[in-house]
Amino acid sequence: MTEFSPEAHGASRQVNIGAITGSTSFAFTPPEPKPEDLTPITAPLRAGHPLRGRDELLNDLVSGWKGAERVRVLHGMGGCGKTSIAAELAARVSPHTDVWWLSAVDNEQFYTGLRTLARSLGLSTDQLDTANYPDLLWNRLDAHPRRWLLIVDNADDADVLRIGGRRLSWGTSWLRPIRSPQGLVVVTSRDGGEDTWADWCTLHPVDVLSNDDAGQVLIDLAGSRSGDRESAAVLAERLGNLPLALHIAGSYLARTGRISPAFADPSALRTFNAYRDALDAGVLTLSFPVGPTDDLTPRPAGAVIGATWALSLDLLSVRGIAQAVRCSAFWPASPKRPSPTNSSSSPRCSRSPRTSPASRARPSGRRSSGSRTSGSSRWPSRPTRRPPGCRC
């Protein structure tokens, strides 16, 4: 019997017993348990404003328990509102459904959430430390007596959902087909590649909003005092109808609109037209040249988020909000500020530099066989804990 251990976060082991049984099995060795390995796994609360332009998708997801397709993947570029859709789904079904929310930003957060979920389902600490812990967890999920919803958010690197060299299509990793009629799994990710996900996963592309819905989002957030529907629609189009950019701009205008003109900063923008003119004039650090016929791509999306985010930070700083000072410390000294959707320029803390999951180098040939290739070189070392508020 030959045994070898890939660099799988120090948490996975492959045991080759082909010489004896003619097959290969994979065992999971969990990391050492720590007292802090429990974290809240409740769904985040959404703001009181309606979620615009997502009714058809939400209705499909709400009825997901009625069909056989019960592993859903919401995919799209950053800022399109995938997490908001998942949170709205959780809010709609929570009165009669057990909802669990796991962050898959990195291995540490995901594994910590899994341990919390396992404990809430009744697994003991000893069971969490066994090699068949993943199987025990899924057995508990499949046997759960109430209807349940498991949301895995920000799984931009699908490798986080895998165990060792297992492929997602095998259905033996952390993401598996649902055997129980009581369960539904929803994953949010920027990766919409069909060869990334198993054939038992249903992919739902999440795009930017229509111009009418995007304009209404601005009015919902900023109120009618910032302008009429026509001016809101014009600004929304200028922002590429990107939900995150709309939220940042609308929230900024809502804050400036609540300040009496007698006490307001003269340079503060208070209307949809003023905000659009500032973008057109390049007053904001990064302009956003998107026209009616232009396709929104991650790079211009990052530009508008960077510009609107910079403006919001400036407003907070003028008002003396302490958090703005801490957030501004992450921006570089150059005139151009980074985009939260661009991992190569995103703000980082002064701890050890680390590459984001979405930008890690992929092994060559990973798409040739229709699934991710296995290999120990993919696995990062276990990340250190980050200070509060740091998204590096």
UniProtKB/TrEMBL annotation:
Enumerate the GO terms in the molecular function aspect. Answer: ADP binding
Locate the NB-ARC domain: which residues?
57-218
Where does the chain cross the membrane? none
Region Disordered, as annotated, extends over: 332-392
Residue ranges annotated as compositionally biased, kind Low complexity, are 334-392
A Pfam family reported for this protein in Swiss-Prot or TrEMBL: NB-ARC
Protein name as annotated: NB-ARC domain-containing protein
Its organism's taxonomic lineage begins at: Bacteria, Bacillati, Actinomycetota, Actinomycetes, Streptosporangiales
Which branch of life, at top level? Bacteria
